[in-house]
TrEMBL record:
Its EC number is 2.4.1.-. It is found in: Endoplasmic reticulum membrane. This is GPI mannosyltransferase 1. InterPro entries: PIG-M (IPR007704). Pathway: Glycolipid biosynthesis; glycosylphosphatidylinositol-anchor biosynthesis. The keyword Transmembrane helix applies. GO terms for cellular component: endoplasmic reticulum membrane; glycosylphosphatidylinositol-mannosyltransferase I complex.
Length: 235
């Protein structure tokens, strides 16, 4: 990629950061001056849950908190530093998704024009900008999913499985993507070895070393995080 293209990409990231900072500042103004709030109602729930954690309690002391305790821990700076911490944190993850899109796209052979449009479609999408700056935790889900995809395209099955186990612990619904990852890992060009050999049934031929590794490591990560949360907070 030429110097001009790199400068364009860098400028896109700079503009995306500025845009999100402006929206975060606007959120404080709108919340203080309008009946309709900019901030997601769940953001206040996260913050209250984090306050209970900081005081040595359980995040589930906050009614309607329905997320893993780790989210409240991550947002403890909302209480300790500044109430806008979470919005900056989620917006940073939102920007990081753009970086992962570039990395994956380059690895998959996308040209500079395609990379630019893919990046712009994410960084300047009004939905993604609003979601992260309103204080929704969806950016955390997005970055963990893209970390999974990035690791898979790099052939790093263990790293991908850890990221996937983490995201399923944080938000259960990404479990629906498991079959897609299994199919990706089963492709011949990934160099997998079928555990049951060429003479095995068609169904069993999908059971490969990489698929088993992905399933075991992601499950272990999920259950370890869940068990740890239960041990500390009982839920």
């Amino acid at each position: 990629m030429g110097a001009r293209r790199r400068n364009d990409m860098n400028m896109a990231f700079v503009c995306a950061v500025i845009l999100r900072l402006v929206l975060i500042a606007w959120s404080a103004y709108q919340d203080a001056n309008f009946d309709v709030k900019y901030t997601d109602i769940d953001y206040f729930v996260y913050t209250d849950a984090a306050r209970h954690v900081v005081r040595g309690g359980s995040p589930y002391e906050r009614a309607t908190y329905r997320y893993p305790p780790l989210l409240a821990v991550l947002l403890a700076p909302n209480v300790l530093v500044h109430e806008m911490w979470g919005k900056v944190f989620f917006s940073t993850l939102d920007i990081a998704v753009g970086g992962l899109i570039l990395k994956i796209g380059r690895r998959r052979g996308m040209n500079a024009r395609e990379l630019k449009y893919a990046l712009w479609c994410w960084l300047f999408n009004p939905f993604t900008c609003a979601i992260s700056t309103r204080g929704s935790c969806e950016a955390l889900t997005g970055v963990l999913m893209l970390l999974t995809v990035e690791a898979l395209t790099a052939g790093a099955t263990t790293r991908a499985a850890i990221a996937y186990g983490f995201v399923v612990h944080m938000r259960l619904y990404p479990i629906i993507h498991a079959l897609m990852f299994v199919a990706f890992l089963n492709k011949d060009y990934m160099g997998n070895r079928a555990l049951f050999g060429k003479r095995g049934s068609k169904a069993l031929s999908w059971v490969t070393v990489e698929n088993v590794k992905f399933a075991v490591v992601s499950s272990a990560t999920f259950f370890a995080l869940t068990a740890g949360s239960y041990a500390v907070y009982g839920m």
